[in-house]
Amino acid sequence: MLWKRFDLDISSLLAGVQWLFFLFTNTVLVPLSVGHALDLSSAEIAASLQRSFILTGLLCIVQALWGHRYALMDGPAGVWWGLVLGICASAPAMGMDAAAVAANLTGGFLLSSVIAVLLALLGFLKLLQRVFTPTVMGIYLLLLTFQLANTFFKGMIGYNDGGQWDLQLAGLSLFVIAVVTVIHLKAKGKLGQFSLLAGIVVGWIAYAVLFGSGGSAAAAAGTLEMWHWLPWGLPAFEPGIMLVGLIAGLVNMTNTLTGIIAAGKLYQEEAEDKQYIRSLLFTNLFSIVGACFGLIPFGTFASSIGFLENTKVLRRSALIIGAALLMLVGFVPPLSGWLALMPMSVGSAVLFVAYLQMFGTALKSLSGASLNAKSIYRIALPVLTGIGIMNMPATAFAEFPPLLAPLASNGLVVGVIVAIGMEAFVRWERFDGKSTGTAVQKESYSIK
Question: What is the secondary structure of 359-373 as a DSSP string?
Fold first, then answer.
């Protein structure tokens, strides 16, 4: 019955495998980087990887069936990931060791998730919807596109901490991008839907021929204590980390709002309030469980929109298959080790192409804005402020208060805050060119 209910066929299975690689690539780096930042052992990092795969896969299935009911990824939240790494880097300035940071992070995860659940039940979503106007959503998606493109561009050219990049890796990445693009644009029928999967397979084979196998050794190590309770120690509640965590939790809620609104447009329907509420509840309930097992909070990936627009596969069955396969990878350590051998440069090149589609989604969100020499500030100021911060090195924020630096150095967060403030305090209709005379109308232009 389940097979017939979701119209499962060979194309759904292939789409599911494609989803598996998308889920895996967006998940694997989080526990690896956080584990190293907290000085965890290889066995602890391996266990964290397995738990992350299992809970991410399960959350995606729950959301597809009973939550927002769209083919959207829910996984380790990017805003929390950046915040955790920032706090770990600032730990010496706060006089805290890795163990103390881990304990306080656990407390921050739990408190933020519980408050998010309460806010969702108390109707906070209505306020969030008023604040998150189409213009703010478009700016958010633009900045998210720039942030992700920058991250994956560095990954596909082998950019290192020394500011150098690998020409051979860059050449291979260009080849992978060409494969994905040609299949996506030229292939007929359903073949074009699997351009990302084809790029991964071809790129992985080419990488193995040119460079041999690669990947993370930590992911290949299994552990018998995968479900160790509170591996980061008993929760602690340092006020500064709690405050920053609450802000991150609110920003993370906007991911759900943005993702569901954009998905509704793809599915040509308007999401109901109960879909937002169910999604927020499931995401934060899983975040509470994850915090008890040493995982950062989950969030809805608005970046899934780029993946959906590239593949044109909107069926929930494909996501469910991919999520189930990710859970299988988590339960079977050898599978985790095998997938971890996938070169990150190949995965980065494929995702770079996938997220290009999200740039179009952002422009569509802003298509109703009629801009002129005055109202252009509405979009230009928050976007360029965010991009400017994204291109500044972390050392530029060394003099900031330790707990403020992680947020101040996040161009996405700062840009969205600026956009929200401008929408709240400026009456942009006065500058839309509709009532300011012919001279202004002549200089007006539209991004449609």
Answer: HHHHHHHTTT-EE-T
